[in-house]
Amino acid sequence: MSFLTNIRWRTIFSLAIILPIGLLYSHYRYSVGWLNQEMGGIFYEIFWCLFAFLLIPTRSSVWQIPLWVLVITCLIEFLQLWHPPFLNWIRSFWWGKMVMGTAFTWLDFPYYFIGSGLGWLWLRLIVRGAKLK
Questions:
Q1: In a domain, 76, yes or no
Q2: Whose CA, among 20, 97, 112, 126, lies 20 to 30 Å from 1?
Q3: DSSP class of residue 76?
Q4: Can you give the residue range of the structural domain that contains 105?
Q5: Which among 29, 46, 17 is positioned nearest to 112, based on CA atoms?
Q6: CA distances from 100 to 48, 60, 83, 84 (A)
Q7: What is the pLDDT of the chain when averaged over all its residues?
């Protein structure tokens, strides 16, 4: 098995771990009192880091992807302050709420930074020992 194939399988396995955790967290955060809504940003960031790495598995993308995921997520957070009809229509769907969010809060930002940092560490673990470009 080539290193690239091995890297992709590690990434797919990682996605298979983080996606159910994030979705379960999203579903149960309201019923378990100590879970706060903002903590979901950690799983959100890690998921997008892994997903992007599945598409672009290079050594330089290990640090670039978490940085771009952080920037784009922060921009999406600021978009929550804007409520034109087409964005409200997107947010009316479950997937629109999951990707775009519905309410701006400054409390999300620390979790985005933590999630991107953990995403970076996770990607480093995936490529450990691999010969990538």
A1: yes
A2: 20
A3: H
A4: 3-127
A5: 46
A6: 13, 27, 11, 13
A7: 87
